[in-house]
Amino acid sequence: MRPQGGIAMNFELTREQKEIQKAVRAFVKGEFKKEVIEELLENHQFPEKIWRKAAELGFIGIHFPEAYSGQDLGVFENILVAEELARGDSTIGACLLIADFASEIVLHFGSDEQKEKWLPKVAEGECLSCGAFTEPNHGSAITSVDTTAVPEDGHWVINGSKIFITNAGPLAGFYAVLCQTDPEARPSHRGLSLILVEADNPGVTTQDVGHKMGITLTYTGAVTFTDARVPEKNLIGKLNRGFYQLMAFFDESRILVAAQALGTAQGAFDRALAYVKQREQFGKKIAQFQATRHKLADMATKIETARLLTYQSAWNFDQGRIDPKLTAMAKMWAARVAVEVCDEAIQLLGGYGYMAEYEVERFYRDAKITELYEGTREIQKNTIASYLIGKIK
Hints:
The protein is of the alpha+beta class. It has three domains: 15-97, Acyl-CoA dehydrogenase/oxidase, N-terminal domain (Butyryl-Coa Dehydrogenase, subunit A, domain 1), CATH 1.10.540; 129-240, Beta Barrel (Butyryl-CoA Dehydrogenase, subunit A, domain 2), CATH 2.40.110.10; 244-389, Butyryl-CoA Dehydrogenase, subunit A, domain 3 (Up-down Bundle). The chain contains twelve helices and ten strands. It has helices at 15-31, 34-43, 48-56, 75-88, 90-97, 103-109, 112-123, 242-278, 290-318, 324-349, 360-367, 377-389; strands at 128-132, 148-152, 155-166, 172-180, 192-198, 204-208, 220-231, 235-236, 280-281, 284-285. Strands 1-4-5-8 form a four-stranded mixed β-sheet. Strand 2 and strand 3 form a beta hairpin. Helix 10 packs antiparallel against helix 11 (360-367). The radius of gyration is 22 Å and the shape is globular. The chain starts with 14 loop residues before the first helix and ends with a helix.
């Protein structure tokens, strides 16, 4: 039966999308070996070999055009990959799914020269990409920044500091840096621009932020720009339009974070379900207890609602119907679900859930970041409410 108006709704993945899922699951099964992950965690080491293998198989930058070493697929396919990677392992998966972080800024707004130089390197696993937006004194308030870019003899001279920069470190290729290019602009966000700065620029220094609660193998750094000179052509997009370009990027990147949260929740659920089906207490499997069954029902329902919101956001984006309200909802809800489901997974495993060997405690720690980066839960609520209420006269 078709709904009124003749519009058909199809919630089935296409054959190609199912094949992508299958391929990523096979990759995870083959590469995410428990002993390998334990060694990486013990040595606090980025999974470089696994990352390069993922790139070789086309899982990094799958949404890039073929001309830039991508597969010319959409955001939907990209988030399917991200979901399966995080489901396989929340820590290793995070490293891989954010390997191309902020590359979309170059993809959508960069010059042909910028795209040709950097996108293939990211997709082929030659380097990680970085977005340098957050500052120590501003946090989520990116309507104004202290980092400045001053024109001088055909160059931009950049000075300032950024904090909590994903992928900042030895494998970084470039930074898309949010700078103040018109200090007289009012409001201040109208004077912001995005400028590409190569990671090996002599004016760039990085420092690891230190031990983190979760996603412990990802590079997260503080980046300082000291008289970093780059050619004027390194401007990404239009002058003084950086804030608006960044907002457009967030509408895409927040879907990716939702997928990360979704995969993390599903991975924790998978492990908890397997445990309760084999663990015996009082002479029977604990999966037979009603309290356990109710927990599983609640967890599965939350995951499915997060999946629907995330998939809808990605599908809308690929149709050109970009909806910041829906994107914010997906990111906010999937992240909350990830935290809650991982918490319940630990509860179902009891004391074992607290032990590193059973992995769910690590999924729990990895889940929390999805409520923080790409805009906190409160920022998402502000976005949702703004679109609901509109302008108040």
